[in-house]
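Might you be able to consider the sequence and fold that I enclose below?
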Amino acid sequence: MLRIKFCTVILLCSFAAKAQIADIKIIPEPSQLQVRSGNFTLDKNQTILLGNNFLVAMPEVKLLQQLITRKTGLEIPVVTGKSTKNTGVHIFRDPEIQNRDGYVLHIDVKGIHLKAADRTGLFYAIQTLAQLFPVPIENKPMVELPYVSIIDSPRFEYRALMLDPARHFLPIPGIKKYIDAMASYKFNYLHLHLTDDHGWRVEIKKYPLLTEIGSRRKETNGDGIPHEGFYTQEQLKELVLYAKNKQVEIVPEIDMPGHGLSILAAYPDLACFPQKFELSTVPGVSKELLCVGKEEVYQFYEDVIAEIATIFPNPKIHLGGDEAPLDQWEKSSHCQLAIQKHGLKNEEALMAHFFDRINRVLIKHNKEPLLWYESNVERYPENSTVILWRNEEPDVKMREIQSRGLRMINAYGKNAYFDYPQWKGDIPNVNWMPVLSLENAYAFDPVRGLSEKESQFIVGVEGCVWGEYVPNIERAFYMTYPRALALAEVGWSKKENLSWEHFKKKLDKHFINLISDGVPFRPPAELSD
C-alpha cells in the first residue's frame, strides 16, 4: 500500500508539472463556464443566507456549511431573511431553471451565489463549489475562491454506477462510502445486483431459506474459503435513506429467470427438474432457470417483489433477464404445456409471456421493469427500460431497441464495464476481458452518432462493476476510479464540451481529492509520459 501511495505522489507531480494550475478543473465539465480575474475571500464574520423561498433545502445548506468548515476551518452560520453586508453565501430558489438537476453558481466581489429550482440542483451546485476550493499543489489560500459564472444542467437524466454484491458481499459502510464518492461527481443512480448464481443478498421474510441457504457458498474460484453475507430489510431501508440524502436513488436487481442457483439451492422445486442444487463457486452462466411453466414460480416472484417494493421506493426494479439459456425449458413438460396453453410459438415467446406476467405484478406496486437487453426476447413490456451491454453488434442492437419503442440506458461493455482490466495483467489469469483504459472510457459515445432527435430514446449511461474478480469494496473503488470520472463527464456534459486533452489536465486535482477522501484508485501511469 505504501508503494502504491508513493507511486501516486510521483505521478501527481508529473501531472502537476504539465498542468496549468490556475485552470478551473471541474468534473464533469459544466454546460457554461466563464472565469474572470479576481477571488472572493471567505471569513468568519460572514453568513450563509438561505432565501425564504427555499427553506426546504436546509439539509443541503447544512452540507454546504460542513463543506466550508472542512475545507477552511471556518464555522459560518446559516441565516434566513434578507441579504446584509455580512452575507458571504447567497442561496435562492429560481423556478425558471427548468431542469431539476440544473443550477447557477456565480462568485463575485459580493460573494457566492447559488440558485436552483430543486434541492437536487442545489446539491449539484455544492458539489461543483467543492471542486473550486484549492488543493495543496495549487499553493493558494483555502479561503479564496475564483470569480466564476456557471450555468449547468445534465446531458442525460440517468447517470448510474453498478455494484455486484451477489458475487462478493459488500458491507454497508463500504457502499455508503461508494455513494459519497459517486454523488460528488453527480451520478444519481446506484444499481445493486443483489442476486445471482453465487449468492442471494437481500432478506425476504416469506422465504427465509433464501438467506439461510442462498447467501452462502462453499468457496470462490477454488480458494476453499466459505463466503456468505446478506442485508436485512432494515439495513437496506437505512441505506436507501442515506443515498437519498446524497441525491442517489438505489435500483435493486432481482435477476430472473436465469442466474438463480441461489434460489434453487434454497427452493429446488422451483426448477423444471428438481434436484439438490448448490451455489456456483466459479464465474460462468448456469443453464438452470426457474421453471416458468410452474405457477408456484410466479407466486414466488410476486411475493419477493412485494417485499422488495417496500424497501426501495425507486419506481424501477431491475429484473435481470440476461444470459438465460432455454435448454431446460425445451425439455420441460411444464414449460411445453404452458406454451400450448397460452398459444405461444416457442420458448422465446414464453420468455416474453413471463415478463408480461411479472410486469403486471410490478404495475400493482407502481413499479416499472428495467432489464438487460437480449435480442432473443421476443417482446418486452411497453413500459420497459433496457440496458445495452453486449459488446457484439451494439449499433444493430441499439436500432432494435429504438424500433421496439423502448427506453435505453447505455452500458456498452467496451466503454463502461469497469470490471474489465485497466491494463494488461490487471486481472491475473483472466484473458477473455478486453482492456478498458481511461481513454477508452472517455471515448464513450452513448448515442453512437445519432442526432439529438434520433437519440431521444436513450435516457442515460451506466458503468458496471461486476463482482467475479472484485472481492471487496477497496477493489471496487480501484476498478471504478478514475474511469468513473470519464463516465461522469460523458453522462453529464454537453458533447461539444468534451475534450480528452482538457480532461487529462483536470485529473491532478481530482486525484488529490480522492486521496484526501480515502478513495482507492488506479493512477493512470500511461498518461504521465
About this structure: The radius of gyration is 25 Å. The first helix runs from residue 2 to 18. The chain has two domains: 23-152, 158-528. The longest strand covers residues 32-41.
